[in-house]
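Re: beginner question about structure tokens

> Can someone show what the tokenized structure looks like for a real chain? I only ever see the sequence side.

Sure, here's an example I had lying around. Input first:
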Amino acid sequence: MKVTIATRVSDLALWQAYHIKERIESSFPEVEVTLNKIVSNGDKVLDKPLALIGGKGHFTKELEDEMLAGNADIAVHSLKDVPTYIPEGLELIAVTKRQDQSDVFLSHKYKSIEDLPQSAVVGTTSLRRRMQLLQVRPDLIVKDLRGNVNTRLRKLSEGQYDAIILAWIGLHRLDLLKDIPFTDKLSLDMMIPPMGQAALGIEIVKGNDKIREIAESLKDENTFIATQIERDFISKIGAGCSAPVACNAVIDGDEVIFRVMLGFPDGTNVMQEKLVVKVAESKNIGSELAQKMIKNGALELLKDAEKIAFKDEMPQRL
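And the corresponding structure tokens:
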């Protein structure tokens, strides 16, 4: 039996796809896995913030189109890129075991965020990171940082930025941390990750029992529970790529620790919550916390945040 995985062609996406290929072939020796490698628009347009070219969803859309056209059976996504809406005919069936979700501070000159001098230039395209960084260090200058991981690290080494912030897991998977003089993993209380960080989402075409069985073999139950809480929160609050929202659930023993934060990209007007509940009672906490924050004005806050998020990049009305 042949199974085709749709994947983007970035180094990290290919690492993820080959990782899943190996897992499938070792669990199902009768299956031969091939890759359908797609250059997504998000990998081509590198001079604009993600939110201005359609948000993270366009990273997944082209893979989904290939599946719907019959050119792939499975797509492997970074779960943080998968919108909470899944197109008709497809299904997000499994989430793999999540690894370290932390963001990491990287610099060639300074040991940590605390060590950065006044008005140091920090690179990140994420409004979520921008919001949390400026909340603790409002004096910093935050500049956009696009490109794949290697491009971003090259820009740092060339001195275009005093420091940059990236997801730890991607650098770890590609073995790139050893080349950077100063790395400081940020605690989840200091820098809350986005929905789904460090987990892979396995999406399939509906209606094929064998493909479903293969995909379900990749599922990690605890990660599925935690990321579903995050996805429920984001779905209810309606947060897209152009709104600074951090949202992370961690299962520790029989408890879930759920952290969320939203506000303006400049670190002001922040709403923040941290819940600790039993796993057995956690099913609806994503939606319930979103509802509570909506009652307290979260939607109006996010609307205002979106208006100012990219005003420098958006054409001004004359």
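Each token stands for a local structural state, so reading them left to right follows the chain. The longest strand covers residues 245-252.
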